[in-house]
Specification:
Number of domains: 2
Structural class: alpha+beta
Order of helices and strands: HEHHEEHHHEEEEH
Radius of gyration: 17 Å
Distance between the termini: 25 Å
Oligomer: single chain
Length: about 180
Amino acid sequence: MNKERLINNIIDQMKEAQIKLGYDKETIRLYYPTESLNAILEIKCANAKEMLSLLSKSFKEEGILGHLEFAIRGGRIEICVPPQGSEYVHKNVKEPAFLVDMINLFRNNHHCTLEEIRQVFKKYSEEYICESTPEDMEFDYTMYFKDQNIDEYYYCIKMEMGHTIYHRFTKEDYKLLVEA
């Protein structure tokens, strides 16, 4: 079980929220489908109940984010990170420059164009993928770097009624989304 990868994913989600919304020393709750946790942890739990049991046993010790708590909420796994985890991320995790630029583009321009998004990617590497998504998906484009050391996430872009939004997925979650 790849516990480190889950901790890194939690940290990434928290840092993204802190960049978007600002920092507050507060409890953070994140929600994951069992399939996502299976991919992140590199395991195969059959359902949320089995996943909850495994996580509760595997994360008994307090880690860098404090004592994590787990529950099932609406069929997904809720991961509750205490305020000390929020503080740890704020003080110790550097803001990824690419993510800051992406968030700032969307923050400052609610109707940014595909070309403006491409320019943010190009700033970090000419080696990125921008492809139209399958017609049955709710997004228009998917963008990601060939070199995952720059940023490992897949950015799904939706342009609708004068607004442009993005959602960020792990590679595995993106593949589950495409296959759905």
